[in-house]
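[SOLVED] Predicted holo structure with zinc ion

Edit: marking solved, answer below. Original request kept for reference. I posted the sequence and ligand SMILES and asked for the 3D complex as structure tokens.
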Amino acid sequence: MPGPRISLAQLHRATGATRPAPPTQVPFSGQWRFDLQQVDGSSHPTVADLSECLFFSPGDGRIWLQDQRMVLMHAEALGGLRRELIETMGLDKARGLLTRMGYLSGARDAELVRRQWPDAEPPVAAVAGTRLHALEGVVKVEVVRVSYDAATGDYQGEFLWHNSSEDDEHIAVYGVGGSPACWMQTGYATGYVSTLFGRLILFREVACRSAGDAQCRVIGKSVELWDDPQEDLRHLQLGDDGADAEPAAAPLGPWADPGNSGGQDPTLVGASSAFNAAFHMVRRVAPTPATVLFTGESGVGKEMFARSLHRSSDRASKPFVAINCAAIPETLIESELFGVERGAYTGAGASRPGRFERADGGTLFLDEIGTLSLVAQGKLLRALQEGEIERVGGTKTLRVDVRLVAATNENLREAVRQGRFREDLFYRLNVFPIHLPPLRERRDDIPLLMQHFLHHYRERYQRDVPGFSQRAVKALFNYGFPGNIRELQNLIERAVIMVNDGELIDVHQLFRGGEDLGEGVLSLQSPAPGDSGGRLVGAPNRAPADTTAVPGQTLEEAERQWIAAALRRTGGNMAAAARQLGITRATLLHRARRHGLPIGRSARA
Ligand SMILES: [Zn+2]
């Protein structure tokens, strides 16, 4: 039986007080700089507002910051971990790791503030991050100056950090001297502000107590406004995207090995733990000859990961040949894979090699392998086992040396059970499975991907698009992305084409392909002048009374109605519905079951 949760908020509710007050509205009209007085200690969310999100639940061993579980740790223990990291991995790697850890915390906190205070003006919400950071016991932040241009979305801030916990720990071990050491805190600021603004706002510590300065001073600004962001990006593992450096001179992201600094993959961008976990798996298996099976939904970037795997392998100088099994008619798949001898069948006018032969010495990538016919599966298995193929209509056996990388968006075990996929082939392929997370499970990467694709399409279409409006940022964060990264990429490409030069991308330029948008997204939508698109759909399906309080209704009934509405809006996506409701997925699952509501497929998986 969980114990009581003790919080200020509860006290307030018990005494009939209302929720935290709505955020102070700060007028912005596109001017640079704004009056700092307007974001002083009294503007909402204040430290008191934020501390109302903090719940202690000692009875069941949990602490919550809204729906995020938190832990109280001894700073000294964290310091010990930091020291061990530095000593085992070296300063540089330890710094990267801690920077990314901070980034994730910052991204989480930004989501919390966005959810709790959806109407807060961006610079005000940004300052809330400094208060959360203080509340969490990390550092006291003093705002020196903040400027924000509502027209371009450009943000710059300068802050002083007092009582940095990282410095305390660093100085205790290494003393004063050397370079700035508030790595996690810098990562936090970058993660927080980037998530809030939907673009990469890079923070750098320009003075630090650990380096002998009187106090720590940090500057944050859009990545384009830094002359030399490479070093900072390297710690986030972001490569050089967004900056104008020559790729060859750029530091390497996680996707480019030393000695292979050539291409960087357009979709291999991320700092989230889900992304990094997948990436480390790729790095681990790349130098071996093992067969790799990528699994994951459509659009998560399976081919990009496969290419990256190839480039990090010792076959990098040999061909990478990709084939989408679902795109080739069943009658042609064998000749595509294994080649064909002249006259093998009507229309085979000339002999030609198949993909296996063309990939000789290199890597063959078979996408959507679950769609192969049983006959083709048998031939594939033989090719893998014997290292030999025969062309269709041929009599000669050809030796091929191919590393196979396969991908599927379906559950192959299930296909085996149903007799649609050969069990022996499945085990031959499933040597080293790597699951690629859907975008909704790596939402921390959304601002980085937005930045990346914006930069990419701005260049490709030669457009002058400064960034995204706040409404667009919020809409993208609230959207479920059934089509994953590919869908985000398409939305941004479309918007870059649609928007006028010099204007920020708004919601109606992003969503015009009939995407099913939840209420959270639609409520942000207001008709844009001259836009008759009106393609934003989703509203007609919803009962108008979705979230309207009914007199005489019990709390229990209201809760059921709210949960049902959220599940409807998100198409049964538990994680997205939980996010909309501001509760954990586990809580949502529990309550939905209690109310006898249908539970989405993501819950059963
Ligand atoms: Zn510092």
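OP edit: The pocket of zinc ion is lined by residues 161, 164, 167, 180-182, 205, 208-210, 216 (CB under 6 Å). Thanks to everyone who chimed in.
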